[in-house]
Known about the structure:
The structure holds two protein chains of two kinds.
Chain A: E1 3-11, E2 17-26, E3 31-35, H1 42-49, E4 57-62, E5 65-66, H2 72-77, E6 79-82, H3 94-98, H4 100-104, H5 109-122, H6 139-151, E7 157-161, H7 169-186, E8 189-194, H8 197-203, E9 206-211, E10 215-220, H9 222-227, H10 232-238, E11 248-252, E12 255-259, E13 265-268, H11 271-275
Parallel strand pairs in A: 3-8, 3-9, 6-7, 7-8
Antiparallel strand pairs in A: 1-2, 1-4, 4-5, 9-10, 11-12, 12-13
Helix pairs in contact in A: 5-6
Chain B: H1 2-12, H2 22-54, H3 58-69, H4 73-84, H5 89-114, H6 118-126, H7 131-161, H8 173-182, H9 186-214, H10 230-234
Residues 12, 14, 16, 18, 36, 38-44 of chain A line the site of adenosine-5'-diphosphate.
Amino acid sequence: xxxxxxxxxxxxxxxxxxxxxxxxxxxxxxxxxxxxxxxxxxxxxxxxxxxxxxxxxxxxxxxxxxxxxxxxxxxxxxxxxxxxxxxxxxxxxxxxxxxxxxxxxxxxxxxxxxxxxxxxxxxxxxxxxxxxxxxxxxxxxxxxxxxxxxxxxxxxxxxxxxxxxxxxxxxxxxxxxxxxxxxxxxxxxxxxxxxxxxxxxxxxxxxxxxxxxxxxxxxxxxxxxxxxxxxxxxxxxxxxxxxxxxxxxxxxxxxxxxxxxxxxxxxxxxxxxxxxxxxxxxxxxxx
Amino acid sequence: xxxxxxxxxxxxxxxxxxxxxxxxxxxxxxxxxxxxxxxxxxxxxxxxxxxxxxxxxxxxxxxxxxxxxxxxxxxxxxxxxxxxxxxxxxxxxxxxxxxxxxxxxxxxxxxxxxxxxxxxxxxxxxxxxxxxxxxxxxxxxxxxxxxxxxxxxxxxxxxxxxxxxxxxxxxxxxxxxxxxxxxxxxxxxxxxxxxxxxxxxxxxxxxxxxxxxxxxxxxxxxxxxxxxxxxxxxxxxxxxxx
Lengths: 287, 242
Ligand SMILES: Nc1ncnc2c1ncn2[C@@H]1O[C@H](COP(=O)(O)OP(=O)(O)O)[C@@H](O)[C@H]1O
Ligand SMILES: [Mg+2]
């Protein structure tokens, strides 16, 4: 399912303008990452999709249908939403948390539990955790439960708001890889919010770099953004300008080794790369 | 000390068992308490939930609760008896007890909801719960311990104040106490007072247990460990993913 923002604006009652004028098309079955520093309006934009926030102006369309015309409760039940803090219900066991939406939709208890257990497999959670309470899980496990809950209603759209922001780097890397796997298997339209450039480039088919007020600094594939930063702000944010992402090739003992700006090896140049058009040895723009 | 012994003697003398005796007085006392508690809850709980769920009217609720708490209970009873008239003394006393218990129960009801992590409630709404489902499946269960704690205060207030029902000739344990004062029968007064204390302690204990039972499984107690679910203790954390 495609999502389109058409000239949306959000001014909160206290006068804060979180989003000034935002337009974007998110194609079906792709992952779009909204990237930006804290406070630039990412969460506000994301929550407009499931009507947790209603825009002050403009429209949000899902498959060309204005969400404002859809009952918010029905809309939310068919959109998966993963929150940074997992947002699990503390008084419900893991399996019941995962089964929340199917149960709300009237699925029988046994069937919902069976589905919850399958989803635990899907997100890589041991079934023995099904009867635990959220507080008895690690942060990473809680996030997996959050993802499983979001998948339970078999939504076509998955909204993820810094879902891995609160877990340690190793678990985060693991969860990112799981998400990449899941995405291949499930073919959903994913909108992913993060302030982490590496995460954005790892996960996004399309990356939308935002500035305060939800202004788009640049939108494109990670490669496009790296190759052609639209402004100094973009270059700086993605690290191209600071040389953080500039790699160069050095020949060591006859082997081409890719090293980073500090001269630390990042890898070995693959054989195909040497003969690729526009040979990699030219290095990237930042050099 | 001898007054104390005499009070005990009064309490346990066989004459106390007949008509107008202790069981009847306790029954009357509990009856007032129950009626007043039920009415106060019927008013204060929905109101408190409304305030807690919508977040609207909180200032009003706090002000009302504070003002009502400052009311002198005896004065309130006399005032209501005068207003409602001597013919409906029962209604006047009950109304006074209800008014006295409302602040605690109201505060317990809305504080219980207010104390819940906003993100939990936001998440419940975001997955597609209706407002009613958010209230009944998330806010009420998670707010129950604080509601019961408010009810506990309210019920103690009623039990203590119901003693004053004796003043307007309605019976209850206050009857024995006041009669004792009038007759200068201090063992009787003390005996009656002891019974009120005992009743209050029993009710307090009942609510203490209820409060504990009402803490939902999975919700961490202040400073305490999590309640272990049977399966959790069977499953070593090491077997878990990540
Ligand atoms: N409910 C709200 N009321 C008032 N201001 C808000 C509200 N939610 C967010 N904001 C403000 O809107 C701006 C954007 O917030 P948000 O969308 O949460 O940013 P991000 O997710 O990128 O950190 C911030 O300045 C924030 O303080
Ligand atoms: Mg945010």
